[in-house]
Amino acid sequence: MNKPLRKVGITMLVMVMLLLANATYIQVFKADAYRTDPRNQRVLLDEYARQRGQIVSAGGAVLAGTATTTDRLKYQRTYADGPLYAPVTGYYSIRYGAGGLERTEDDFLNGSDPRLFVRRLSDMITGRDPGGGNVRLTINPAVQKAAYDLMTQRGYTGAVVAMEPKTGRILALVSTPSYDPSKLASHDGGAQQSAWTVNNADPGQPMLDRAISQTYPPGSTFKIVTGSAELNDGGTPDTPVSNAPNVTLPGTNVTLENYNGEICPGTTFAAALAHSCNVPFATFAGQLGKDKLTKTAANFGIGQADLTVPMKVAQSTVGALDSQGALYQSGIGQRDVRLTPLQDCLLSATIANGGMAMKPQLVDALLAPDLSTIEGFSPAELTGTAALSQTNAGIMRDMMIQSESFTAGKGKNPALKIASKTGTAEHGTDSKNTPPHAWYTAFAPSDNPQIAVSVIVENGGTRGLDATGGSVSAEIGRAAIAALLGGG
């Protein structure tokens, strides 16, 4: 064989080997990734030939179901009260794939999950139409609706999360503004595209799940963490504190003030929390130091990068804490501290549960098509280490009860024994002239906690620069609590 032919032969052999290697890589190593990719329309078309499983609430209300059609796709996804539950269900679209719970539980809902193998085998033998499994959630429709309705009636942008402190079961997951996943489930491609375009062009970002995917400065709700760290370090409700209206940040000429530059009404730790005085908690953080504050925060769950519910939750953080000035500012939930509303709810839930954070969970059980339970939910500790002792959690609870007694806002009811903490969080490049985020985190009944809740209203809602957690967010949290406990 002459030299040119030999070169051509070698080149062709190399090309064939590369093609074989690429085919092997795609078919063996990347097959599952391509199969589960939401953009894989071939898989979606196959799925539309069988009935997708339902997503139901804790009480059995169908949040996402299927309806038969007369077009080439046999089934269409349907959503009851779509905008109300969109942050919970997500969407399922022939053009845009799946999002939210529809995506994280897709294998089970479409019937391809290995746990449904016996059912699929039985369907083949008996000739029954194959179907997907059902997902039962922990969501309480009354709590979800009470929080959503009030947020939308007020025109607020923000989020509400409620959970059961002893188990971590999520009772409500609200994000406003919201969107209607039914429009994305349409079999009309033009209607799908129009809804997708409108949703993504909306400056209100209705498809952003603010409850778990967005982090915010928590403001004074973070004083639960700083206060817990102080109790862990030997502090007591009677620990003396400064009632000065401001304090100079160490190493700077910058002053940190109490709200409106006011003198703190008391000179004890308990009074400082009840009246949300900034100077004492900034000082606590500076005295505690980075390691102690970070350790306590971590035991509340702050900093976890792999938290899922089962949708992925954005990572909360206390920031670098790289100077005394940073510690002072972070001690009151400012500087670089960022929490999701879910994590903020965990602050109250952890105190309510005697100091132990429980892993938040949205899925109560996975059910077969015949509604028999395939896998149930078991409560689990979030970090395995208590954020504070039961004794200190009881002390923090009592101080939060006092905080609630001084908190203004609508929805107060003596029958609802609430322990709470508000927050008014500065943000933006010109924080003094930017309406603050308004927070409220609480649990009830304070003597036998059954619900913990966190509310954030972005940019002060309708109150602008005058917004506070009490005047804006407290009524939302109280409404959610009342929906579960009565008295609303």
Strand content: 15-25%
What is the H level of CATH, i.e. the homologous superfamily of the domain at 212-363 and 384-485?
DD-peptidase/beta-lactamase superfamily
Instruction: Tell how many strands the DSSP assignment holds.
Output: 15
Structural class: alpha+beta
Major beta sheet summary: 6 strands, mixed
State the end-to-end CA separation: 92 Å
Task: Describe this protein's structure.
The chain has a 6-stranded mixed sheet. By secondary structure, it is of the alpha+beta class. The longest helix has 27 residues, at 3-29. It is built from 18 helices and 15 strands. Helix content is 39%, strand content 15%. The mean pLDDT is 91. The chain has a domain at 212-363 and 384-485: DD-peptidase/beta-lactamase superfamily (Beta-lactamase).
Provide keyphrases for this structure.
488 residues; Beta-lactamase; six-stranded mixed sheet; 15 strands; 39% helix
Detail the topology: elements first, then pairings.
Blueprint: H1 3-29, H2 31-36, H3 41-47, E1 55-56, E2 62-68, E3 75-79, H4 82-89, E4 91-93, E5 97-99, H5 101-104, H6 106-110, H7 117-126, E6 134-137, H8 141-153, E7 158-163, E8 170-176, H9 181-184, H10 189-201, H11 210-213, H12 223-232, E9 246-248, E10 255-257, H13 269-274, H14 278-299, H15 324-330, H16 341-352, E11 363-367, E12 373-376, H17 390-405, E13 419-425, E14 437-444, E15 451-457, H18 469-485
Parallel strand pairs: 1-6
Antiparallel strand pairs: 1-2, 2-3, 4-5, 6-11, 7-8, 7-15, 9-10, 11-12, 13-14, 14-15
Helix pairs in contact: 8-18, 12-14, 14-15
